[in-house]
């Protein structure tokens, strides 16, 4: 049937149609693919031998009381209203990042100097971990992303485990300090909300998930967004003339170039995907990128068209596992793209095909060189 195929390498059905993807992500009878994640980590010595912190992090992806408690405690800190209140602060970080880019002579790598530093600064600020913490986040978050790959190598998984331990060693004293003297940061909020309900490993695991989602996926989204605008000069000019269009631009970048390609589910009971039967326990991968370009759902699906009527997408997943950091990623990317459009009016690609990271799941650039940006010195 159109919209479903079997991938022998991944040993899973892959869903590519928008309607069937929504069925898997939103419908009953499907559960988070925890079992598959644990199988992927078998290279570390077997699921039973996982470092406790890594195992706990994966448990937060699972359906059931652990996941439900996690969502209930963490969701208020990432509500759209709460994140919107942070927009002026995030805008200042984005402006500082763009100012740094404008001061560099010659070709500039926007991934290195903008797409990564902005999310790192935001996360470090939310956690209130200072410069040392920001440097740790910048170094460890890319290593932790192995747990979200569809087929990670054993050495990647081992390194992810070491990165988790590095983070834990830095965070444990901080958790003790914040428990004794709470502040206004996310760590203090989490400790207050979860007092007596969350174990120390769960608090640490939640922070690690924030590092993965907050840095890696947002950096990928920012890089993809700048590239899409550079390849569509009319849209870049439109955003420069009307910065309020940033929300529509980000919505279309999410649809056309989502930073994550796939998400997995298991059939809790026998399910039908069109004419295909998925047995209980059967693994399904939802190809988010393909579903977001399904011609059945989207008119002219490969065209970059901010403000299109059929803009709703699946880039953040759906259902019980809809991305908690969606609002934060949107606001960060909107503010960066707005600043880039207004304050770097003569952006030009320095290489026609910027390289992408070798990944089965992350759709992100490793480099985005621009030539001699001309800067507007006003705050924009």
Main sheet specs? 5 strands, mixed
Task: Tell me the overall shape.
Answer: globular
How many helices? The count is 16
The structural class is alpha+beta
- Total number of strands: 9
Describe this structure in words.
The chain is an alpha+beta fold. It has a single domain (4-370), classed as Cytochrome p450 (Orthogonal Bundle), CATH 1.10.630.10. It is built from 16 helices and nine strands. The strands form three sheets. A five-stranded mixed beta sheet has the order 1-2-8-5-3, with helices on both faces. A hairpin with a 4-residue loop joins strand 1 (4-7) and strand 2 (12-15). Residues 39-49 have low confidence and may be disordered.
Question: How is this structure best summarized?
Answer:
With 380 residues, the protein is of the alpha+beta class. Helix content is 52%, strand content 8%. It is globular and about 55 Å long.
Features:
52% helix, globular, five-stranded mixed sheet, alpha+beta, 380 residues, Cytochrome p450, 8% strand
Question: What is the topology?
Answer:
Blueprint: E1 4-7, E2 12-15, H1 18-26, E3 30-32, H2 34-40, H3 52-59, H4 65-74, H5 80-85, H6 87-102, E4 108-109, H7 110-115, H8 117-127, H9 130-144, H10 154-180, H11 186-193, H12 200-230, H13 233-241, H14 246-256, E5 262-267, E6 271-273, E7 276-278, E8 283-287, H15 288-291, H16 326-343, E9 369-370
Parallel strand pairs: 2-8
Antiparallel strand pairs: 1-2, 3-5, 4-9, 5-8, 6-7
Helix pairs in contact: 3-12, 6-8, 6-16, 8-9, 8-12, 9-10, 9-12, 12-14, 12-16, 13-16, 14-16
Keywords: Heme, Iron, Metal-binding, Monooxygenase, Oxidoreductase
Family: Belongs to the cytochrome P450 family.
Protein name: Cytochrome P450
């Amino acid at each position: 049937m159109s919209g479903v195929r079997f991938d022998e390498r991944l040993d899973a059905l892959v869903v590519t149609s928008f309607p069937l993807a929504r069925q898997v992500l939103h419908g009953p009878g499907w559960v988070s693919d925890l079992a598959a994640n644990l199988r992927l980590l078998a290279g570390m010595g077997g699921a039973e031998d996982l470092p406790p912190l890594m195992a706990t992090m994966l448990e937060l992806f699972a359906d059931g009381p652990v996941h439900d408690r996690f969502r209930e405690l963490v969701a208020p800190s990432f509500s759209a209203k709460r994140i919107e209140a942070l927009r002026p602060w995030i805008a200042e970080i984005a402006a500082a990042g763009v100012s740094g880019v404008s001061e560099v002579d010659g070709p500039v790598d926007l991934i290195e100097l903008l797409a990564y530093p902005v999310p790192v600064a935001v996360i470090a600020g939310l956690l209130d971990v200072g410069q040392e913490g920001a440097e740790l986040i910048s170094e460890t978050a890319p290593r932790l992303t192995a747990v979200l790959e569809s087929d990670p190598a054993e050495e990647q998984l081992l390194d992810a485990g070491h990165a988790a331990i590095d983070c834990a060693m830095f965070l444990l004293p901080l958790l003790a300090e914040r428990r004794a003297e709470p502040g206004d940061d996310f760590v203090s909020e989490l400790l207050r909300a979860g007092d007596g309900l969350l174990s120390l490993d769960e608090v640490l695991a939640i922070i690690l998930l924030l590092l993965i989602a907050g840095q890696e996926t947002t950096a990928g989204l920012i890089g993809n967004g700048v590239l899409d605008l550079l390849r569509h000069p009319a849209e870049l000019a439109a955003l420069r003339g009307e910065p309020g269009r940033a929300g529509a631009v980000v919505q279309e970048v999410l649809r056309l170039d989502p930073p994550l390609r796939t998400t997995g589910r298991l059939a809790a009971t026998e399910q039908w995907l069109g004419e295909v039967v998925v047995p209980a326990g059967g693994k399904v991968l939802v190809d988010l990128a393909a579903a977001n370009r399904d011609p059945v759902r989207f008119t002219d699906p490969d065209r970059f068209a901010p403000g299109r009527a059929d803009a709703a997408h699946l880039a953040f997943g759906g259902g019980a596992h809809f991305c908690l950091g969606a609002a934060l990623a949107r606001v960060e990317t909107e503010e960066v793209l707005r600043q880039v459009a207004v304050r770097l009016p003569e952006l030009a690609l320095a290489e026609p095909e910027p390289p992408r990271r070798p990944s089965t799941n992350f759709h992100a650039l490793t480099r985005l060189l621009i030539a001699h940006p001309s800067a507007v010195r006003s705050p924009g």
